[in-house]
Known about the structure:
alpha+beta, three-stranded antiparallel β-sheet, 4 helices, 3 strands, GIY-YIG_endonuc, GIY-YIG_endonuc_sf
Amino acid sequence: MRERQPCVYLLASGFYGTLYTGVTSDLLARVHQHREEITGGFTARHGVKRLVWFEMHDDMATAIAREKTIKKWPRQWKINVIEELNPTWDDLAVGFGFEPLG
Length: 102
């Protein structure tokens, strides 16, 4: 079984596309859910499936607090944090073994 690790993440529909901020204790399972549109909702309606940024935390309370903060940020701040580590908006999920999105 995979060890759970609290994580805040940003998904995008594409380069400079629609953004989604989320929190999870299992990033790979959550990315799978978004890609397969298992939970429906905002990400499924807007085609938001590309993992463009994530940040690991020691505990879920800290991760949730960080997610709430990031959700309040202006869009440009989110773009800045993505581009700081991922300037080409690559789908980071590919590095975890996911198939590239078409």
